Automatic annotation (TrEMBL):
Domain Glutamine amidotransferase type-2, chain residue ranges per copy: 2-225
Catalytic reaction equation(s): D-fructose 6-phosphate + L-glutamine = D-glucosamine 6-phosphate + L-glutamate
Alphabetic keyword roster: Aminotransferase, Cytoplasm, Glutamine amidotransferase, Repeat, Transferase
One cellular component term from this protein's GO annotations in UniProt: cytosol
Xref: Pfam families: GATase_6, SIS
Assembly information from the UniProt record: Homodimer.
Domain annotation SIS: ranges: 294-436, 465-606
GO biological process entries: carbohydrate metabolic process; fructose 6-phosphate metabolic process; protein N-linked glycosylation; UDP-N-acetylglucosamine metabolic process
Cellular localisation: Cytoplasm
InterPro entries: GATase_2_dom, GFAT, GFAT_N, GlmS/AgaS_SIS, GlmS/FrlB_SIS, Ntn_hydrolases_N, SIS_dom, SIS_dom_sf
Protein name: Glutamine--fructose-6-phosphate aminotransferase [isomerizing]
Organism in which the protein naturally occurs: Candidatus Magasanikbacteria bacterium CG10_big_fil_rev_8_21_14_0_10_47_10
GO MF, one annotated term: carbohydrate derivative binding
Length: 616
């Protein structure tokens, strides 16, 4: 969603803030702004520059001014309340520009709060501006000579309903920044040259790996060389400093034209990171220590629920196949936004996994809290270290995909599948999977990175196919069995970055209605690899061909019959059926990517979207 970056220290703030905004642009990119506290002989002053559009537009504006100061805050926005205008861009100011605030989240009772600020003339339509004025009001109410900005922030927040991650600065406190969190992440980087504050670790990595993650209800008071964190009752608390292993270089494009392409190509490497040290070939089993369950607890599980959104929910659907097939445990997949409202059946023998790249998806967090309330074992499969889901679940595994900065998720998806397969095997070995079957699966998993590379080598050929089809306005993606979620993922990738309409169907379902849409203008993209449903899928494709639809196929290397059926074909190496999605999705990712490039789309930052959806 929106991105926050702040700095207080002994360096100039502006370059840090701009670089940070560029790193955070993936979180939201409809407008941006920056405010720096300038110290002048006559006193301090807050200078603010804002712009609609991408960070480049803000940078152009900043090229015309000089902002001198070692304290500052900045924000990149994804509109929720109020349209995309400069007035609605953060930072918002109050008290005639003396106080500035950046905010992520939603103030649900902002209308109510507004009524308590009758003397204020609001300049934006946002809920965030209301919060700035509310803090200013409490600050002004403080009649002491030594007005306390932190206390004003705390008092204001006690009236707020909703979610926030905020950073506040005041011209009368030029050596202080106040940050607070309720539902929207705030990370503080601790370095020799000051404190860095952000909504996720990526913009801080260039300066320090030592980070503190605020929990809900915590308020940080930061100065260049010291910091105090307090809870809601203003009690000082000691937080543990975490070492973030990601490095700054991983957050660069490294010569690729887009983050998405780099992240597609990262897959063989990060897949190895996901499985490394997590299995025992000799015993044919996996062991993810973070699961935090005894063998008896694991044996007691009689239902697994996988909760996720979007791409993560497609990975979850593949996880369902693995859990049912390997462990024989009935497994459901729930889209997080539906789960909590459907009164799910949960008891102490239910194991719930929340699957999330960002670990900050509001719907997934809310669903996991609901599952916890109902007494389930709740675990996370998460990429972002220190994120809310990682901290709120009672165990789980990091997927080690490294920073994923393209809005469209790719490498996190394959690593989610990797972790779910390992978990399914771990449960399976306690139940019905033999050592030999476990060993076979682990051998096949170890071969996956090399096979992924073989598909990536076909990128140029896939590009030509993408160029050939780029003008078609509609696509069907078809798959069956474990390849149905793959079709769904291919369809999602295509629509989100190319804006071409596409739908995914299980191959066998086409004839129950959707086939009516087929014509020579409506191509189908089908996954027909050599698994148990090969012949069924083949018949479904014949049905589509009979309606003159063009056919693009993903087929198993060496399948010459498939070539006869297809207008265009992409071959993938053979693997165990359960592992097929790890390979079969890659041509679909590349197809979406090359189509988007051919259409001149903004691949990494598609319209209307934002990475990390922190609102419900
Ligand atoms: C699609 C995409 C989204 C996310 C979804 C969940 O490419 O990126 O569908 O998968 O918003 O996000 P996380 O995994 O961060 O919970």
């Amino acid at each position: 969603m929106c991105g926050i970056i702040g700095y207080i220290g002994n360096k100039q703030a502006m370059p840090i803030l701009i670089k940070g905004l560029r790193r955070l642009e993936y979180r939201g990119y409809d407008s941006a702004g920056i405010a720096v506290c300038e110290k002048n002989p006559a006193g301090s002053e807050i200078c603010r520059v804002r712009s609609i559009g991408k960070i480049d537009m803000l940078a152009d504006k900043l090229a015309e001014v000089t902002l001198n100061g070692t304290v500052g805050i900045a924000h990149t926005r994804w509109a929720t309340h109020g349209g995309v205008t400069e007035e609605n861009a953060h930072p918002h100011v109050a008290q005639d520009g003396k106080l500035a605030l950046v905010h992520n989240g939603i103030i649900e009772n902002y209308r109510e709060l507004k009524e308590h600020l009758p003397d204020v003339t609001f300049t934006s339509d946002t809920d965030s501006e209301v919060l700035a004025h509310l803090i200013a009001k409490h600050y002004q109410k403080d009649t002491g000579t030594d007005k306390d900005l932190r206390v004003a922030v705390e008092k204001a927040l006690s009236h707020v309903r909703g979610t926030y991650g905020i950073v506040v600065m005041h011209k009368d406190h030029p050596d202080c920044l106040i940050a607070a969190r309720m539902g929207s992440p705030i990370v503080i980087g601790i370095a020799d040259d000051g404190h860095y504050i952000a909504s996720d670790p990526t913009p801080i990595l260039a300066y320090t790996k030592n980070m503190i993650f605020l929990d809900d209800g915590e308020v940080a008071e930061m100065h260049p060389d010291k910091m105090k964190i307090r809870d809601l009752k203003a009690h000082e608390i000691t937080k543990c400093v975490e070492q973030i292993e990601w490095n700054d270089e991983q957050a660069e494009k490294q010569g690729f034209p887009h983050f998405m392409l780099k992240e597609i190509y990262d897959q063989p490497t990060v897949f190895q990171d996901a499985i490394r040290g997590r299995y025992n070939l000799h015993e044919g089993t996996s062991f993810l220590g973070g699961l935090n369950m005894t063998d008896d607890e694991m044996r007691s599980i009689n239902r697994v629920i996988l909760i996720a959104c979007g791409t993560a929910s497609h990975a979850a659907m593949i996880g369902k196949y693995a859990f049912e097939r390997l462990a024989g445990i009935p497994t459901e997949v729930d889209v997080a936004s539906e789960f909590r409202y459907r009164d799910p059946i949960i008891d102490g023998r239910t194991l719930v996994f929340g699957i999330s790249q960002s670990g900050e998806t509001a719907d997934t967090i809310a669903a996991l809290r609901e599952a916890k309330r109902k007494g389930a074992f709740v675990r996370g499969v998460v990429n972002a270290v220190g994120s809310t889901i990682a901290r709120e679940t009672d165990g789980g595994s990091y997927m080690h995909a490294g920073p994923e900065l393209s809005v469209a998720s790719t490498k996190a998806y394959t690593n989610m599948i990797a972790i779910l397969l390992l978990y399914a095997l771990q449960f399976g070995r306690l139940k019905r999977v033999t050592t030999a079957t476990g060993q076979r699966m682990l051998h096949a998993l170890r071969d996956i990175p090399e096979k992924m590379k073989m598909i990536l080598d076909q990128s140029e050929q896939i590009k030509q196919i993408a160029i050939k089809y780029k003008a078609y306005p509609n696509f069907f993606f078809l798959g069956r069995g474990i390849n149905y979620p793959v079709a769904m993922e291919g369809s999602l990738k295509l629509k989100e970055i190319t804006y071409i309409h596409s739908e995914a169907y299980p191959g066998g379902e086409m004839k129950h209605g959707p086939i009516a849409l087929l014509s020579d203008q409506f191509p189908i993209f089908a996954i027909m690899t050599r698994d148990q449903l090969y012949d069924k899928m083949r018949s479904n494709i014949e049905e589509a061909r009979a309606r003159n639809a063009k056919v693009i196929l993903v087929a198993t290397q060496g399948d010459e019959q498939a070539r006869e059926l297809a207008d265009d074909i992409m071959y993938v190496p053979d693997t165990m059926e359960l592992l097929e999605p790890l390979l079969n999705t890659i041509p679909l990712q590349l197809f979406a990517y090359h189509t988007a490039v051919a259409l001149g789309r903004d691949v990494d930052r598609p319209r209307n979207l934002a990475k990390s959806v922190t609102v419900e």
